[in-house]
Amino acid sequence: MTSPNGPSDQFAPVLAALATMQGNVDREQKYQATQFLEHFQKSPEAWTVVHAILQSENAGVEAQLFAATTLKGKITYDIHQLPRDALVDLRNSLLSLLVSYRSGSRPIRTQLCVCLASLALQLLEWKDVISLVVSTLGNDVESSVCLLEFLKILPEEVTEGRKVSLTEEELETRSRELLTDNATEVLRLLVQYAQSTAGSPPNPALISCVNSWLREIPVLDVIGTPLIDVIISALSSDAALDPAVECLCNIFRETREVDASQEAIRILYPRVMNLRPKIREAVEAEDLETFRGYTRIFSEAGEAWVVLIARMPMDFRELVSAIAECAALDSERDVISLTFNFWYELKNYLVLEKYIEARVKIADIYSQLVDIMIRHLHYPEGSEADPFDGDREAEEKFREFRHSMGDVLKDCCEVIGSAACLGKAYSEIQTWMQRYATSSRKPVNGQVENWQSLEAPLFSLRAMGRMIPADEEQVLPQIMTSLVQLPEHDKVRFAATLVLGRYTEWTSKHPAYLEPQLNYITRGFEHNSKDVARAAAMALKFFCQDCGKLLVDHVGQLHNFYEQVAGDLPIASLYEVTDGVAHVVAAQPLDKIYDALRLFCEPIAKRLMEKANSANDDKAKCELADYIQLLTIFVQVVHPHVPPGTLNPMIRFWSGLIPVLGTILDNFVQFSPVCERVSRCYRTMLVSYRTDMLPLLPQLAEKLVTCFQKSHQGCFLWVTGAVIREFADEELVDEATRTSVYQFLEQQCLNMFRLLNTKAATEIPDVIEDFFRLLVDGVMFHPYKLILSNLLQPIFEASLHSLSLEQVDPLVAVLQFLRDVLAYGRSSPPTSAYPDNPKEVQEAVKAMALSKGELITQKILSGLMYSFPRDCVPDSSGVLLALVELCPEPWLQWMKQTLELLPAGSISPTEAQKFLSTLEGAVSTRDFKKIRYSLQDFTNWYRRKNVTPRTAITGIEGIEGSRFSFSE
């Protein structure tokens, strides 16, 4: 195979291409080398060449790793290139290579083990897999390493069996032969290896192998052997710690069915609890990885046995206490998050009346947990101005971590009661006040001593707010009195302000506390800290939302306040304040709501026009777009209940502002942010006022049509869909209005067809999405008119044209439309809104399916194999199944013709026929589930085999009908 002087000419080009990839050459040379190697990997010649490289002593480790990786891909995807009788020789060659590499490079050895496992899965006639591999690789210590790695990899490869071209039946049978039938023998081999290496350092490979077979070997069988001693002793080994932890945690997961695993748990529990002293030892030794491992062990044991803790709290109390100890000792907050899910899972049981006894007996641990969490909530003791000393990543991590701890505090509230949790937080505040308040009431230069100890319980109060009932009378009155008296410090005021905002439902039922709280919040707008002002805006929003009825007589003062701060607030905070005052307007009596709305919105509209008149650059135009949202907030919030037959005062008011928005649209119709904001305002009006919008509908529809014609912005189609939905109810809308709305839909369709005459779908994916979302509404609310209209043909043409897209959202919109409209080809309608599905509608859909079904099938199958994102798979399958239901025999022919268009060499005739035969059997029995899984398995396999990130092909060549043409 090789000459004495160097590598054979047989693989010299491959080595040269690899050297180019790793060398300092230009991009074009590397691209050509990549293309050469990818073509080589798919070629039949690669089988011989990679074997030659692997057998060569001069090829180099990197080339040999490339060869092993290539061989893995060939066995997975290109095994059809070899005669069936050559597979035994391939097996023997792999075994020989493994013997050669038993003491060589581990990555190469791993790839070869994967090769052998993948071949074992596909070589159905190879029945003595385990015994042959053991006899070949189990003869010495070095070979045993290969054997353990193969045994570890085999279950993983079988579990991922859909990577290879096997039917469901073949995969199920082979899984049983390779795994289930060999479980006892593998356990015997592992025990034998453990006994033969007793006294040696724990072998991570042995533990990983045990872990890999846990799904096949009963846990009780494993823990009844010396293997459990090996796993536990490995926790003391740095090299074996991680696999040992992973293996133990998987053992726990296998015992989640506690009633069926009682004997296993009885053996495991004392073994686990004997490890508890190791927690403190790891902390004292500052061994973070070991501490993390033990925390994970105890937490996952608790999660697995949580129902037993609830049933027998005293028997398992020590486990709960150990998990709490892990949380308490984590001074750097590195591993505490591993315990969070356990506290949540246990809480879910303890709150049930059935487990009230367990709640009582474990309540003290949850009480300790509150203290632990509050202690961990403390900011680090860095500089006053920046506790994180400029480390923004650490600051963001801390913020996220605090919110997770807040969830644990909520769990504690449910277990031990809100009063107990509030009392602990309040006690912390009192302790701080007694110790520091005298010296900190008037801090010098904003310095507050040990402010972290005050801010942490404040944050805990905010975190627990959702769990505190609005009628709480024991602790909250004292807390609310204290909050407005706290010393001035940016983070303390920020936290206290947010606490007040979180408890506004409580304040609404305790109005005596409203005025001091509101004064405290509004003073925050004058604060130098932007964070405090932002918190004040958020809190004011919640105050107005929940206490709006208490503020109805203060609308004038609120308006004055609003006008004072509106010009100084950042836009996000202005939105929140606007939302708040809008709720106060919404709380006004019906006879006063018009005047209240006018009081706030007319100045906004005036400023809006001023901004529109001076918006000469993109920045000013974006500010204009942002300001439009203020009106939208009022539309969204202020929608009073109006008795039937009564003119909605909101329509009277907004009818005067519709022309203002229309003028802004006319002037900025080519600037998408303005168009989108105005469209959102229109859509919000439709959602808020529904059929009361009828008087404004003609001018609104005209504006949407003309603006879409001018701008081709999809947002106008988005609003059109809202019109379709809101004016669809036959009980609320007369037929003349429904007809006008449908005509409006037709106009927008015609505008879209004209656009598609000049633009490819790939140039306007967002507009495509909005158009087909609109059509989904059209099919939902006007199915018969749309299906029997002249629009159906060009709509299908547009859908075919749009299936060339590669973005998720527009593709899903197209596919959902196709699925919905094809559903009307059945005898029964897909929606209960229509009791019957007329014959002419069914025939029209079936005719369209027969006419366009081949192209639809080709384009969807092409997309699934080459370009569609994964999120498109369910809807793609749904369309294909709809076609199967309407035209089963033609669909099978379409599938066959599509496979014939695939590039030469991408799929063998045998594989194609196997796939088609599976489909034929499923279609004949109308087994739609099997059709769906067969399609997904085949397209996933094809994609993994033939498509790489650098593949230039995005679909099957030779598919016609992608060009759109519409003539009126």
Number of strands: 0
- Kindly name the structural category: mainly alpha
Number of helices: 47
Alpha-carbon distance between the two ends: 70 Å
Percentage beta strand: under 5%
Low-pLDDT ranges: 1-7
Give the mean pLDDT. 92
List keywords for this structure.
47 helices; mainly alpha; 968 residues; tRNA processing; disordered N terminus
Secondary structure topology:
Layout: H1 12-22, H2 27-42, H3 46-55, H4 61-77, H5 87-100, H6 106-122, H7 129-137, H8 141-159, H9 168-178, H10 183-196, H11 204-212, H12 219-223, H13 227-233, H14 241-253, H15 262-273, H16 277-284, H17 288-304, H18 306-311, H19 313-329, H20 337-350, H21 356-376, H22 392-416, H23 418-440, H24 452-464, H25 476-483, H26 490-502, H27 504-508, H28 514-523, H29 530-547, H30 555-566, H31 571-586, H32 590-614, H33 618-637, H34 649-667, H35 672-689, H36 697-711, H37 715-726, H38 735-758, H39 765-781, H40 783-787, H41 792-802, H42 808-822, H43 839-867, H44 873-886, H45 888-900, H46 909-924, H47 928-946
Helix pairs in contact: 1-2, 3-4, 4-6, 5-6, 6-8, 7-8, 8-9, 8-11, 11-14, 14-17, 16-17, 17-19, 17-20, 19-21, 20-22, 21-22, 21-23, 21-24, 22-23, 22-24, 23-24, 24-26, 26-29, 28-29, 29-31, 30-31, 31-33, 32-33, 32-34, 33-35, 34-35, 35-37, 36-37, 36-38, 37-38, 37-39, 39-42, 41-43, 42-44, 43-44, ...
